[in-house]
Design a protein that fits this description.
This protein is α+β, with helices and mostly antiparallel strands and 120 residues long. It is 35% helix and 20% strand. The protein has 3 helices and 3 strands, in the order H-E-H-H-E-E. It has a 3-stranded antiparallel beta sheet, sandwiched between helices. A hairpin with a 2-residue loop joins strand 2 and strand 3. Helix 2 packs antiparallel against helix 3. The longest helix is centred in the middle third of the chain and has 19 residues.
Amino acid sequence: MASRSTNKANNAAQDLLPVTGRHRTVLFPRRRTTPRTARNFVVATLTEWGETSRLDDMRLCTSELVSNAVLHGAPMGRLILVRVESLNDRLRIEVHDGGDSTVTQRVPDESPVPARAARY
């Protein structure tokens, strides 16, 4: 199944933040290949817009966010929404996984980090 742009996805994402500047939204199926496909979408969009100064950072962020959505968020059969937006001097990448669970902040473990042995 190929990814697809939809106005419905754009309307859903617009409720999350004010829309200014340029934006593009695509829905992707939950698959192992989706992080690569989403990266290609973001890179192609930003390149088309001439926004290439932070391209490597945006590629990495997209990869991490979409990988997490595939592995931990989106249930089977659900789509992953990826939105890229250019806001004057800012770039924004949004990923929505369609999962039903709520994000919770975890408290880090208080155990000390083991010291590394020095080799001479």
